[in-house]
């Protein structure tokens, strides 16, 4: 006679974060801000702090973190792209409408939580949220035997979580201001210097003036070299790019030595890389929106995830790898920032 044995479910939990609630409540509590543009969040460190806290509170292992947020037309922002690349973190995006309202986030959360509970993938769920729209997700998970632990942000006054959501959860915890404070900082005002009338001449090193440093040179503390005047007629033609050399040969004007890549190794032409950098910036401004690109300011360092995307886009344009060519990658970034700064009226020139 066949018998069935009960196999105990291993303890495992997932963390579900409504980023809209977390950011809004924390911004109001810590900085008195109502808009995300008024503050910056160290999201990677914040997520690490949340998972460490969950590890201290719950038995078993972490399955993953589900991060629910919204963006216009579901086009992820810079910060959201960084979060999406973190290990054991699943980014879920809803749509952010013109009124700043999140659409579709609660439905995604309910689907994820209910699916994990139904398939016995978790025994516990941490829910960091405050909206009553999350109540159906809690009830669905509990019907499958999952314990739901509701976390909230310390309110500025009264309560910032729906009463029914608090009642239905198995345990409730409020994260204090001191827990969240290290990860939220006030956004700095961006300097917008006026672009001089002769900016083009300055960028080209004309008029005897030193060229304006590029963003990468400013960061590295290097001063760009002033362009040398064109060689007079009759001088050695081999030293001038684009001039015919002895025997009718033509000096290559589309390749340049790449520093740090080995003697005699040639990389892409500088002007070509600047052009590609500007093209990618223009494409992103159009596809991702000005507000998204503004989040990269003040520069000149790109988040590693975004820098990698820039490199991949450029390699598609070139049809080859840029990884051996450090100087070409610098030119690419210079071109990118040149277009971004021009878009927002910040006058910084290209490298010479």
From TrEMBL:
Residues 191-203 have a biased composition (Low complexity). Residues 191-263 are annotated as: Disordered. Signal peptide: none annotated. Pfam families: NYN. The lineage of its organism: Bacteria, Bacillati, Actinomycetota, Actinomycetes, Streptosporangiales. This is NYN domain-containing protein. Residues 12-157 form the NYN domain.
